[in-house]
Amino acid sequence: MSSFAADKIIRFINMTTSTVKYLGSLRTEATHLRSNSIIHTDAPVDNHGKGEKFSPTDLVATALASCMISIMGIQANTSNITLGEIDAEITKIMSSNPRKIAEIVVVIRFSNHNYTEREKTILMNAAKTCPVALSLNPDIKQTITFNF
To answer: How many CB atoms lie within 10 A of CB 93?
Structure first.
């Protein structure tokens, strides 16, 4: 196989996920290519922005909770656990020198559930091993609370 053909196959397998366009005034527009879903970001007020939309670091923190809940859903399906209503509250804590995410606090709340201790353990382990949690820099403290 020629290197051109191999490169074409690799690009097909690893298709581009999204694009990001600068809109000016510290704002961007991200487009998910498969769905054409759009997310706008804005720099936060404490970093020269207007803070009228998610900031990029807000998205990172929010992605952690979203991933945890999604992976719990997958695990619940494969373990015959009724997941029901779940929501999460996310707090992102920034450090100033250097400016980066220092900690992400996630409180996951389960409404009207009577999980066994085994089911709770399965769900908590699934959440803590979601791809986003495993991908974040180990310097970012992840404080996760499960309110069953």
So the answer is: 13
Provide the mean pLDDT of the chain: 92
Helices (H) then strands (E): counts for the chain: 4, 6
Q: What are phi and psi of 38, to 5 degrees?
A: -120, 140
The predicted model gives 86-106 an average pLDDT of 97
pLDDT of residue 138: 97
- Could you state, in order of their start, the residue ranges of all structural domains in the chain? 3-47, 56-147
Question: Residue 21: which of 29, 13, 11 has the closest Cα?
Answer: 29
* DSSP 8-class letter at 115: -
Superfamily of domain 56-147, CATH level 4:
K homology (KH) domain (3.30.300.20)
